[in-house]
Design a protein that fits this description.
about 300 residues; OB fold (Dihydrolipoamide Acetyltransferase, E2P); 2 domains; 7 helices; elongated
Length: about 300
């Protein structure tokens, strides 16, 4: 039982803390508060027009929600790593959003001298009203991203299926590729260690702390070389090789090695030729990745 609960709380969840998405959701929250209280709330407003007062509460809800879901993640990005977001973190975030909305409502009530509601009474009522629709909104957004990424992964796989066996992946970038015989030289920060290989040998690079793991092929066998460097520096070294793309904050991939893609709510999971594990494409890199394979963005 406990293990099942922990597995559920640790299940990955897609979330977008970008301003555009959160502003849209905050506006929806404000309209929801206005409509709910207008339809089911009381009529006593102590001299204020009912519509005007509810508009003020709705506006306060927009500001409170935007603060919790955009400003705080913007100020503390390490706490809001979208690639590590889980159900448990989402539940805590929803409760934090409701906490901020409760503070905003109390501030409006104190400013206008309306009633004597305590914070915990306000928090309870806001939670009862808001927890379900916020959770539904998160679920709908996740399903929308999942549908989009599944459709794009299918288009990508259709392109890959039309390629001859053992043919390199010909992306738009590949038409400008440098000759495969030209060597890539990757250096460590101190310059003492280096790895020289051809573009078709390099499969992907993974960032691990202050080091990078370089995965490459030697006589058809996958090798790993560890260099003290950053993914940013490796990306700069490979800037003149258009077949290599940063697809995640911790991964850089050889587009010619992609053989299959699976869509999920966060982005894609790539299968590379001669590589046993999946390589993620995170939400913030999905559009760039799609452009490399000439997959159009969704119309909505």
């Amino acid at each position: 039982m406990l293990r099942s609960i922990l597995q559920f709380l640790n299940r990955p969840v897609a979330e977008d803390f970008g301003f555009a998405n959160q502003f849209r959701q905050s506006l929806f929250s404000g309209v929801y508060v206005f409509a709910f209280v207008y339809l089911f709330g009381g009529g006593h407003t102590d001299g204020w027009s009912r519509a005007g007062l509810l508009t003020l509460f709705g506006f306060g809800c927009v500001l409170s929600t935007l603060t919790a879901n955009w400003l705080v993640p913007f100020l503390f990005p390490t706490l809001y790593d979208e690639d590590r977001w889980t159900v448990g973190r989402q539940i805590i975030q929803v409760l934090f959003v409701l906490f901020c909305v409760s503070l905003g409502n109390l501030a409006v009530m104190r400013l206008l001298k309306l009633g004597h509601t305590t914070f915990w009474e306000m928090y309870l009522s806001v939670t009862l009203i808001g927890f379900f629709p916020i959770s539904v909104g998160v679920f709908i957004n996740e399903q929308r991203r999942l549908k989009r990424n599944l459709a794009h992964a299918q288009l990508l796989n259709q392109q890959l299926a039309r390629l001859p066996v053992d043919s390199p992946v010909m992306t738009p970038a590949a038409s400008k590729s440098v000759p495969e015989s030209m060597s890539i030289v990757l250096h460590s920060e101190n310059g003492r260690d280096k790895l020289s290989l051809t573009p078709d040998q390099l499969r992907y690079v993974e960032s691990v702390g202050n080091y990078v793991n370089v995965y490459w092929l030697h006589t058809g066998v996958l090798q790993k070389t560890v260099l003290r460097s950053t993914l940013k520096e490796i990306d700069a070294t490979l800037a003149s090789y258009p077949d290599f793309l940063r697809c995640h904050r911790a991964f850089l991939v050889n587009l010619r090695a992609v053989s299959h893609a699976d869509g999920n709510a966060r982005g894609y999971q790539l299968t590379l030729t001669d590589v046993p594990n999946y390589i993620p494409v995170s939400r913030s890199f999905v559009d760039t990745f799609d452009a490399q394979f000439d997959i159009s963005a969704p119309s909505h």
